[in-house]
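Structure in, sequence out. Go:
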């Protein structure tokens, strides 16, 4: 594999694989999207035809056992991440798994151990770490543009979607499939990128509630946390509010830096010298930079490696917020 092309197979070619990730596998040098799988064969075939993918399957095991597929992207809901990761590892194939890594920290540990035993890499799609916008934020913070960091605040509010209001089936708000509600789906990105900026979170405590009762999962979460470097923070997430907001503010002893985790909006810097806006747009295929890095690493060394430790730590923190450990 170090000298050859990585031929990816996607398990779960749904919305995430449509633009965010799927096309990127055939853009990256030394990489090609060779096969896709979806339980509905008509949808699997449709995706393959529209994206010029040579093979399609309606069975995950068949895709994993395709002799030409030598790496697997698991893009299903979290409840099946462990199953498919372990299947791919047992077949000796590197794994790139959607986030969150699984529905629980315990599952994550089993996935890591399975890949360790099989000596294959396991990567998780916390792709913001590879985006220019977030690399710039990290550079700014390290440069001391706001001085010594003191606090972090996260405020994330969303109106209920039409699906939620209509009571339609939605795997993201079914804890048996997603592990929780929108919080685990979205806040996992926010927690991961904060740990990328500031180091690991050592303590976290949270409260959850289901106030609107539109679905089984929580719709409101609050948390306080402390990083290993002593910096403290707090967050509030509501998915049944009257408006939308996505602001993370990092405060230092010489100013503040704020940004939106999702969408294209400027980085805002206010310090003792001036106020500044820095606009950096994300690529259309938003996972392209991450997939580029992963592909290069796997081609160089297909043995056990990856970002599994930081990815699993996000699940551990979420478990703590939910009061599960």
């Amino acid at each position: 594999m170090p000298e050859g092309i990585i031929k990816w197979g996607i398990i779960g070619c749904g919305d995430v694989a449509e633009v965010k990730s799927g096309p990127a596998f055939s853009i990256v040098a030394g990489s090609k999207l060779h096969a896709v799988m979806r339980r509905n064969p008509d949808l699997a075939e449709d995706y393959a035809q529209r994206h010029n993918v040579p093979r399609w399957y309606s069975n995950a095991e068949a895709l994993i056992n395709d002799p030409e597929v030598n790496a697997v992207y698991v893009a299903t809901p979290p409840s099946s991440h462990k199953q498919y990761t372990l299947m791919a590892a047992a077949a000796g194939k590197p794994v790139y798994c959607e986030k969150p890594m699984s529905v629980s920290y315990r599952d994550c540990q089993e996935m890591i151990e399975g890949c360790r035993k099989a000596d294959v890499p396991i990567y998780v799609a916390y792709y913001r770490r590879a985006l220019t916008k977030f690399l710039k934020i990290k550079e700014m913070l390290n440069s001391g543009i706001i001085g010594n960091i003191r606090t972090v605040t996260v405020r994330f509010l969303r109106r209920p979607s039409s699906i939620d209001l209509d009571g339609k089936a939605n795997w993201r708000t079914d804890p048996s499939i997603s592990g929780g509600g929108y919080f685990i789906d979205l806040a996992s990105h926010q927690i991961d990128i904060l740990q990328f900026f500031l180091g690991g979170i050592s303590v976290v405590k949270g409260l959850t509630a289901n106030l609107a009762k539109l679905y089984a999962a929580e719709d409101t979460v609050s948390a306080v946390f402390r990083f290993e470097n002593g910096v403290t923070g707090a967050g509030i997430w509501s998915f049944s509010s009257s408006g939308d907001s996505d602001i993370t503010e990092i405060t230092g002893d010489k100013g503040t830096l704020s940004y939106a985790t999702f969408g294209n909006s400027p980085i805002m810097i206010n310090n003792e010298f001036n106020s500044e806006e820095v606009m950096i747009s994300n690529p259309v295929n938003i996972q392209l930079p991450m997939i580029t890095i992963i592909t290069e690493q796997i081609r160089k060394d297909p043995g056990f490696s990856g970002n599994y430790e930081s990815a699993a730590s996000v699940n551990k923190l979420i478990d703590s917020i939910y009061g599960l450990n």
